[in-house]
Amino acid sequence: MVSITEELVRKKSEHNERLISTLEEISLHQEDIEAIEHIQNWCRNLKILLLQSNLISRLENLHKLKRLEYLNVAINNIEKVENLEGCESLTKLDLTLNFIGELTSVESLCGNHNLRELVLIGNPCVDYPQYRNYVVATLPQLNSLDCIEITPSERLQALRELPKNRAIIVQKQADQAISRDEQRIRVAEQQSALADRCAGIDDEEERIKTFWQAKSEHCPEIRTEIARQHRIGRERHETKSPLDPPKQERNLFAPCGRPYNLNQGKMPFKFQDEADHYLLELEVYRHLDTSLIDVDVQTMYTRVTVKKKIFQIAYSEEVKPDESTVQRSQITGHLKVKLKKLKVNDLLITKKSTSKSHAPSDDGKDEKSKERLDGVVDISNICPPDDLPELI
User: Fold this and answer.
1) What is the 3-state secondary structure of 9-55?
2) What's this model's pTM, rounded to 2 decimal places?
């Protein structure tokens, strides 16, 4: 069974910086999902939910989506309209190519006052006599049914004939329910016989061929089994041969132990070498959740993992990891890492003090503050003594 996981939802919400709490639209089509779950708890602000081409058998766990305007569950295994009363803002509902036979279940949509479009094309119920008139009269808030506009005269006539048409619909859906029960038993027996036949075939290719050549009916059970066989086939093809070369893993360290500099995410950054510390500013995604960022400060390198992509930078002097600080800007979202050096760099301090001493004064008139080197330098004292042995 394929479930709706947090990783799947975040993957499908990359247009929203992988943030799911503020998500307004998501498409989870063609994922072989068999049940609707978790969405209403993770994405309360959803306005558009696309779940077409899955294996969903029931409408459920959607009552908390108060802002949902468009729900598309076309090409699934749904047999009944239910559990949508809490979707107060629902404007369009697409149930194309499902298995809805209990047409009176659309009466559960009477409380969805904002519903304007309903699509039931391809369901068994559309073949019932007076199907359209019954739905038009039952849901007076609709503007169109099956992509055909509802006219005022059509609605008036449907309302007059509602009691008679409902009795016809009830009888037809009762017949459909009996046929569906018989189909479940028949399909179960066919699948059992096919499984026994395939089990007796040793050759895998012949077994697969036997399954796909077998006759089958159009029903939820067969759709689910076909999806399962497709999934097995994909997994079989994705299985790597032992002759395939192993995937080369990216090395973080040289053979001598020196850390490499890496930037897999190609994120802009700044690295400043100060007298007593290093300062790293990494421009991570502004709206990225901080829980997806991991910072590891070591004595000779710092590694930042952002959405499983590694940024690593090495430095020439040791730092104190326990005294280093990591902060994130609330305005830009940039990550700032201040790395305290183990030893203060006196050379940088000298350079700074020298640059300050040579800086001109504000009025430009203080010539005495400028130092100059005048005269000739005596190099006799810096020559090696006479008794120094020659180089070998």
Assistant:
1) HHHCCHHHCCCCCCCCEEECCCCCECCCCCHHHHCCCCCEEECCCCC
2) 0.62
